[in-house]
Amino acid sequence: MGALLGLHAASETKDIDGLIVINTPIYTTSPRLMSLAPLLRYVRPYYPKKRQGDLMELSRQGRFAYDVMPLKALQSMHVLRDKVIKELPGLDLPILLMQSRWDETVDPRSARFIKEKAQRAPVRLVALENSGHCATMGPDTGVIADQIIEFLK
């Protein structure tokens, strides 16, 4: 959701010189859940996450991760996503767009969609070949750091 917030902020102000986004949820790996969230949240406000093994690994590393997803937040993300989709053609700032190949939450088509729709923006798309959704805590942290340093030059 942070990447969506960044893209939205960039469309709202001209005070941003560039933007770095990772695993932006334009498309998710659970489109049915996204569609049902507005109704389902009244019956079942929290939905269990699929990849419990990943959560256990983060816990083993001393990091915290929720084992459920609040459906009200998912619905809010969907509303923001729709707004950002409309705003993409107006973006004209440099964007470093990174997408994990093994993202279990965000469909990798999202990155291609953003690059295609943000036609006025110079977009550098970087594939993170070894990471899942939490890319900044995965095996591609060096790639991410190097790309950010290069982007900021």
Could you characterize the architecture of this molecule?
It is built from 6 helices and 5 strands; from the N terminus they run H-E-H-E-H-E-H-E-H-E-H. The chain has helices at residues 2-12, 31-43, 52-60, 71-87, 109-117, 141-152; strands spanning 19-22, 46-48, 68-70, 95-100, 123-128. A 3-stranded parallel beta sheet has the order 1-4-5, with helices on both faces. Helix 5 links the parallel strand 4 and strand 5. 25% of the residues are buried.
Annotation keywords:
globular; 6 helices; alpha/beta; 153 residues; 5 strands; 3-stranded parallel sheet; two-stranded antiparallel ribbon
Fold topology:
Blueprint: H1 2-12, E1 19-22, H2 31-43, E2 46-48, H3 52-60, E3 68-70, H4 71-87, E4 95-100, H5 109-117, E5 123-128, H6 141-152
Parallel strand pairs: 1-4, 4-5
Antiparallel strand pairs: 2-3
Helix pairs in contact: 1-4, 2-4
